[in-house]
Amino acid sequence: MSGARVGRLDEVRGWIAGCERIVVITGAGISTESGIPDFRGPQGLWTRDPKAERLSDIRYYVAEPEVRRLAWQERLAHPAWTAEPNAAHRALVELERRGKLHALVTQNIDGLHQRAGHSPERVIEVHGTLHRVVCLSCGRRSPMQETLARVRAGESDPPCLACGGILKSDTISFGQALVPEVIARAQEAALEAELLLAVGTSLQVYPVAGLVPLARAAGARVVIVNGEATALDHLAHAVLRGRIGEVLPRLCAA
Ligand code: NAD
Predict the structure, then answer these.
(1) Overall pTM surpassing 0.85 (yes/no)
(2) Labelling 32: which of 60, 87, 90, 138 has CA 20 to 30 A away?
(3) Mutate which of 6, 38, 113, 183 to test ligand 1's pocket (most atoms within 8 Å of Cβ)?
C-alpha cells in the first residue's frame, strides 16, 4: 500500500487536536531514554547478543535450571527498579489529561506508563509485568520484590512457597500464549480508534503488530513514531522518524 509519509509533525498535531479516541501502542523504544535497553534496536540486547533470546523462551526456562539462575540474576539487576519515566511517557499522560486517550496498549513490562501517572484502567499490558511473579504450577501471583529478596539472600532459583513449583516473572515469554481477554481488550480498543499511534516498536511481534492493520481497516488514521523503519510503515498515514523523547512531547502538547 502506498501513502506512508515521512515527517509532517505539524499535520499530525492537527489530527490529534481534531480527534477524541486515540489508541497508543508502545514498545521497548519508549523506555530506552529511561535507561532500559530494547531488544531489536541498534543497541538492543538481542542485536548485541543473539543468545540472550534463550532467556526469554519458556521452553529453555522450564527445562534448564541454569537458564532460570541466569534469568533471576538478570531480574535482580534489571534497570526497571531504578528507572524513571521520561518525557515521552509524560507526553502520553498529557494526552490522557486532554481527554483524548482511549487506551494505551503496551508491550513493555517495566510499569513506567503507570508510574508516569496514567489511570490504571487505560493501560493494557499485553506482555504482562515485571513487577509480579507467577508460579508456573499453581498460578499463585506475588510481588516481584518479595522473590528478589530471596534471590539476594542466596536462593538461585527460588521455588513457589505454596507448592514448590517454578517461579517466573509474570510476563509473556516466547512459547507462551498471550492472555486471551487482554488481547481481546486491545483489539476492541483498536477497532474503536480514530487515530492509532505506534511508538517505539519494531512492529514485528504479533498479535500486537496486527492491531495496526486492524485499526486501519476499521477507518483509523495510523501514525508511527520510531527511530528506524518498522515492519508496518507502509500502512501508516504518517511516519515520524526521530528521538521519541523529543518527538512525543511536541506531538502531544496542547
Ligand atoms: P523492539 O526492541 O523490537 O523495537 C524497539 C524499537 O524502538 C526499535 O525499532 C528501535 O530502533 C526503536 N527505538 C529505541 N529507542 C528509541 C528512541 N529513543 N527513539 C526512537 N526510536 C527508538 O521492541 P518491541 O517492539 O517492544 O519488542 C520487544 C519485546 O520485548 C516486547 O514484546 C516487550 O515485551 C519486550 N521488552 C520490554 C522492555 C520494557 O519493558 N522496557 C524492554 C525490552 C524488551
Answers:
(1) yes
(2) 60
(3) 38
